Amino acid sequence: MKVSFLGAARQVTGSMYLLEVADDYRILIDCGSDLERSSSNGQPAPATPHGNFFPFEASSINLVLLTHAHVDHSGNLPNLYREGYEGQILCTEPTFALTNVLLKDAASLNQKRINELNASKKQRVRERQAQMQKDLYLDKQVRDAMEGVVPIAFNRKFRVTEGVEVTFIPAGHLLGAAHILISVVENGERKSICFSGDIGRKNYPLLVDPAPVPPVDYLVCESTYGNRLHENTQTPEDALADVIQRTCIDIPGRLIIPSFSVGRTQALLYTLNRLYTERDFPPIKVFSDSPMAFESSKIYMQHVKMLSGEAKAFYKENESLFDFENFQFLESSKASKAVSNYGEPCIIISSSGMVQGGRVEYHVAENISNPYSTILIIGYCAEGTLGWRLLNGQSTLTIKGKEHQVLANIEKIDVFSGHGDRDDLLEFIGMQSPETLKRIFLVHGEYGSMEAFRDTLAEIGYPQVVIPKKGESFVL
């Protein structure tokens, strides 16, 4: 058995790992977009160029296992099929549904970019358009990938080939997210390896807690928060209530919350619903400005049985998770822009979470010079993004070519981060015995975070920790 680290090695995004077992059976675990390959305008590379990311023949892969829907784990699946993969993708039912939404959105953006270049009369730009037409996946490639999905239930062993069994274990983090346990029998010896995916945190809005993983021989573990703890110790309800009280009630202000459409926005809306339902907050208008968030919320509603006990009880009593008084989804761009004329205190939730691309740029531009407005950052912002610049105290920002003075209040809370922190990661690894666990591979984190986490693990009795380089392989 051999494992190769083809992505998210000494960096956060682009998760992709190749497991080769007996009879040359090759399993790809995740096939994510590398969002750290930034384009010149600071935005993530639009999609993976054909043939650029795969250091293998796509047709040589026998099976793909997908931990969860986020594009840094799923975003290159359409390219894999375009390059010749003809097999199946195993994932949970919610992961299938959410991945379909995310990839269709990416394909739509790719088509828009191509159309914009195609409209140019400059020969150089039109040549670039022709190249992009070849490189970027579109809706057909997304359909090809989604037709290959086979939904798998949690906590049931699934035999994928002779001597190889796969089990999906709830990981929290996102609806449908899984740790993937693979058991392999080679030469009469049984070996096991677990790929953590992204590890969630306990008591996160809507989601179940990460489930325990049985003893394994090898563990591939994410390390996003390997060197730090979450800053906010309040519950999501208390933290959000405090911000709303200060920004929309004590003063007649406007609260802008950049938020990712899949997962983060649903946690926010559910928390707001509970505040208005259970704490008698004044009926402040809430706008959710993301068509993709609307589609994702419908998927959450279709899978209520897979949510936390608390969420299921709330739904049973109130018959809704996300619909409450004075709440409105904004479906059109016209409705989105009309919100600027709303004169009462309100909350606007819009993507993307890093304030980079999406409708949120418009809302930030409209409110950034208003001292009665607050921009609340609720997650990680990559260096160079507008969100990162706001958090670092820039006095002016250029948005879509226009410079704006920053007079709005900038705040941050991390209670809605879907990643477990250092203590959560230690608890996850602590389920494994140091005497029987042969090796831990740290992935999906900044290198400094990985080094700090490796040192922490060594201090508590886990010296067998490796931080793989991209492309590095290990015989297990």
Summarize this structure as a short list of keywords or feature phrases.
single chain; about 475 residues; alpha/beta; Metallo-beta-lactamase, Chain A; Rossmann fold; 2 domains; 7-stranded mixed β-sheet; 14 helices; RNA endonuclease activity; Beta_Casp
Q: Based on the structure, what is the oligomeric state of the protein chains?
A: single chain
Sheet with the most strands, sense and barrel status: 7 strands, mixed
Kindly provide the name of the CATH class of the largest domain: Alpha Beta
Whole-number count of domains: 2
Percent of residues in beta strands?
15-25%
Rg from Cα: 22 Å
Secondary-structure content class: alpha/beta
Q: What is the percent of helical residues?
A: 25-40%
* Ends apart, CA distance between termini: 5 Å
Might you state the CATH topology name of the largest domain?
Metallo-beta-lactamase, Chain A
Shape, per Cα inertia axes: globular
| Overall average pLDDT | 91
Strand order of the largest sheet: 6-5-4-3-2-1-22
Number of strands: 22
Supply the number of helical segments: 14
The CATH homologous superfamily of the largest domain is called Ribonuclease Z/Hydroxyacylglutathione hydrolase-like
How is this fold's topology laid out?
Elements: E1 2-7, E2 16-21, E3 25-29, E4 63-65, H1 71-74, H2 77-82, E5 88-91, H3 93-118, H4 123-135, H5 139-147, E6 149-151, E7 158-161, E8 164-170, E9 178-186, E10 189-195, E11 218-222, H6 236-249, E12 254-258, H7 264-278, E13 285-289, H8 291-302, H9 309-318, E14 327-329, H10 333-338, E15 346-350, H11 360-367, E16 373-377, H12 386-391, E17 396-399, E18 402-405, E19 409-412, H13 422-430, E20 439-443, H14 447-459, E21 465-466, E22 473-475
Parallel strand pairs: 3-4, 4-5, 5-6, 10-11, 11-20, 12-15, 12-16, 13-14, 13-15, 16-19, 20-21
Antiparallel strand pairs: 1-2, 1-22, 2-3, 7-8, 8-9, 9-10, 17-18
Protein name: MBL fold metallo-hydrolase
Keywords: Hydrolase
Domain Metallo-beta-lactamase: 13-260
